[in-house]
Prior knowledge:
The chain has two helices and 21 strands. It is an all-beta fold.
Amino acid sequence: MLLGFSTFSTNQYPSAAYAFRKASDPPNLMNEPALLKSGEASYFKTYGGSKNRWGDYSATVVDPLNDLDMWTIQEYAFTPDFLSGFDRWGTWWGKLDLVGSGGGRMEFFSSASTVTEGPTPGSATITVLNIGGLPGSVDYYTVDGTARHGFDYIEVSPPRPLVFTNGQTVNTFKIDLLDNGEPDPDRTVLLYLTNAQGSAVLGCLTNSVLTILDDERRSIPNHAGEFNFSSYVDYNIPYQVTENESDSIFSWQFFCDGSPTPDRKRAPMGAVITVVRTNTAVGRCLVDYSTVEGATAIPFVDYLPTSGTLVFDDYQMSANFIVPVMSDSFFFLLDDGDKFLNIALSNP
């Protein structure tokens, strides 16, 4: 444990300091405080208050590169400003080099890994780290999780040593797999490290889980069916609709006398699109539909973009939706030819 703090007295300027204890030290005791950075001057600032403010910056962290060394940053009294004469504070970083001072740690690279069952003989490669690179060894072994040794994998028992030479920071071992040829759920093997030998000790990550992904899968029968456009079922014949299928206020009557009377000579309010459910129709299902831009038809000129969800009840075989089709004679008085529009089904 590393504790960073400021220290000062009647004969010491405010300074940065720290104290440390190892896990093997006697309980409730810290080593003698050590000086990190000596104060360089006195310090007095109240910022309009009644107290001398100090200690806003103090932090101690574990080194993210090896998870073993420690860093601390603490405040100390810096030399006063040359021009104004105001007192100043400064911060000072310090590193407690546990790896370089003889420490080290052996642990798994990851707490979880996966491997596909595959044909026998197969294997899973497990990575172990030797943080600090000091020579030594660590034992590893396996325990059944949901996997069974002799049926899903070859157990490692009693423990086997994994040896690291001086400067070696990574090593691996293998777990041999057995393909039982039967559809199973994914299964797990529990991995453990123990009995570190040499200059290093066991790290934090001494247990890991290996998941064996089954390679025999029973196909799940589809009782809900499939969704298709009726045009696909009818040999891919595209839907066709005339330009004036939808009611429109832009009729010739509008131009002649100003009366916006809709033309209701056409019964449908647009193109009627039918979605069919094939290959059984058990259960209540939903499917989304939408128009898709990018074809030759222009949205809000030739058609109104639309989207929604169709609901198919149990044994219902078809459902419809409408794409409103507009007359663009208000915009183009000349014939502009046939237009094409894409529609799509999604999220069944």
